User: Which sequence fits this backbone?
């Protein structure tokens, strides 16, 4: 029962069998590595001194199951129905798999295959007694956050000096300064994506640190291949009179990026852009680094610790403000089972109508990161000159959803490029689709759903 237009239906989703695609590379190279990482992590966790015997014994069965999953990928085995692990969503996954028909790891829709892999890992853990709530990716998430210590302290300093000491919301005649600050804060939230752990294999620590640096943000502005920031600003200026302005942020990654998102939320409140901010998190570990509820606690645990952050001067000023926003309910977190399905957002209306309705009511929905962008655009092989509005399908024209995508380009889909000449220029500048894949180019795409 597709609710999409003819046009959207004609565009095929990318498959892992697609020659030369990021999908194919990911299925062949990255997936086995990710599963090996979970095996190593469980091995290490089970070897810890305080682990009880039963839990240790159970870890062996889990490692065998994970190894089996990894071998299935390496040997291109067919995707088979997930075993009942007592959770309500299993039937839906298996129904969706049945609808796709016969497929294998190296010959399946990329979006489905990748989501199915993360759900399979969770299924193995769900079927255990002692490891159900174990986050197989926590180790990686934490270690990367600690590495971005300098960037965290630098951002805290700038935030306190630029935003908190200048209550711009109250100042008249400072329109240009307000706008520049909005652009700056939005771009920090955008490039925070550069720490995406599931792609860490392709980036060195130097790359990460330079992407987090302020100068790099400046330089990378030219790499925003579809930039609707002016339209977003115009929308916000036009609507400041609305009494309730709730902004929903569909989060991507934990760690440094989550810190930039929480800071962005605080900025949106401090600047009077939003009256409240709701952060959407995942219900279980997903795409390595995606935010789950314990990651929010973990963020504050680390930020509050002067052991992790020895230069605590600006954090000490910033943290009470952030804590207060959470305590008062100005910033809240929420999750929905839909975020951890393999459905694209084109199917939100039929699969999660209540969620769709909530997003319709939102003042502004901000979608963070590559996976959310793939889901927004149905992971479709659109011509790059397709408008963002068209690629959004049911979330686009007349949807009533005001949706802003902040995404560094790390997969096969990218729409909203104004002209074919620009596509050609990008192909020349960054050949072999590098500008769609290497994380050094990005989009700030906005649609008002009118
Ligand atoms: Mg992610």
Assistant:
């Amino acid at each position: 029962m597709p609710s999409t237009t003819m046009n959207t239906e004609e565009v095929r989703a990318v498959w892992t069998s697609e020659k030369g695609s990021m999908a194919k590379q990911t299925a062949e190279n990255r997936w086995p590595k990710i599963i090996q990482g979970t095996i190593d992590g469980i091995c290490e966790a089970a070897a810890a001194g305080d682990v009880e015997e039963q839990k240790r014994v159970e870890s062996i069965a889990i490692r065998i199951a994970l190894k089996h999953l990894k071998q299935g990928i390496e040997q291109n085995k067919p995707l088979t129905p997930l075993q009942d692990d007592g959770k309500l969503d299993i039937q839906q996954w298996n129904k969706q798999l049945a609808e796709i028909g016969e497929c294998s790891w190296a010959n399946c829709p990329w979006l489905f295959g990748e989501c199915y892999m993360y759900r399979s890992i969770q299924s193995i853990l769900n079927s255990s007694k002692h490891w159900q709530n174990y986050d197989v990716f926590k180790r990686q998430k934490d270690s990367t956050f600690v590495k971005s210590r300098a960037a965290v302290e630098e951002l805290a300093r700038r935030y306190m000096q630029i935003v908190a000491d200048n209550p711009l919301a109250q100042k008249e005649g400072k329109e240009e300064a307000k706008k520049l600050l909005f652009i700056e804060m939005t771009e920090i939230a955008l490039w925070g994506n550069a720490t995406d752990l599931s792609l860490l294999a392709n980036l060195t620590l130097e790359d990460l640190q330079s992407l987090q640096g302020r100068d790099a943000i400046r330089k990378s502005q030219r790499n925003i291949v579809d930039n609707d920031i002016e339209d977003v600003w115009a929308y916000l200026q036009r609507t400041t009179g609305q009494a309730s302005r709730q902004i929903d942020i569909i989060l991507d990654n934990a760690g440094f990026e989550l810190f930039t998102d929480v800071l962005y939320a605080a900025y949106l409140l401090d600047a009077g852009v939003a009256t409240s901010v709701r952060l959407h998190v995942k219900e279980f570990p997903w795409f390595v680094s995606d935010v789950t509820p314990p990651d929010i606690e973990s963020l504050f645990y680390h930020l509050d610790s002067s052991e992790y952050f020895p230069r605590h001067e600006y954090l000490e000023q910033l943290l009470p403000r952030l804590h207060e926003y959470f305590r008062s309910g100005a910033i809240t977190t929420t999750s929905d089972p839909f975020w951890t399905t393999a459905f694209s957002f084109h199917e939100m209306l039929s699969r999660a109508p209540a969620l769709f309705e909530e997003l319709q009511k939102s003042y502004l929905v901000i979608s963070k990161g590559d996976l959310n962008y793939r889901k927004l655009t149905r992971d479709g092989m659109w011509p790059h000159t397709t408008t963002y509005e068209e690629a959004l399908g049911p979330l686009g024209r007349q949807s009533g959803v005001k949706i802003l995508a902040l995404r560094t380009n790390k997969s096969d889909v990218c729409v909203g490029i104004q002209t074919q000449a620009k596509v050609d220029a990008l192909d020349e500048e960054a050949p072999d689709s590098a500008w769609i894949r290497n994380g050094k180019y990005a989009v700030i795409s906005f649609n008002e759903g009118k």
Summary: Residues 196, 198, 252-253, 287, 289-290, 369, 371 surround magnesium ion (CB under 6 Å). The first helix runs from residue 6 to 10. Residues 1-6, 193-209 have pLDDT under 50 and may be disordered. Strands lie at 224-227, 246-250, 276-281, 331-335, 364-368, 403-408, 442-447.
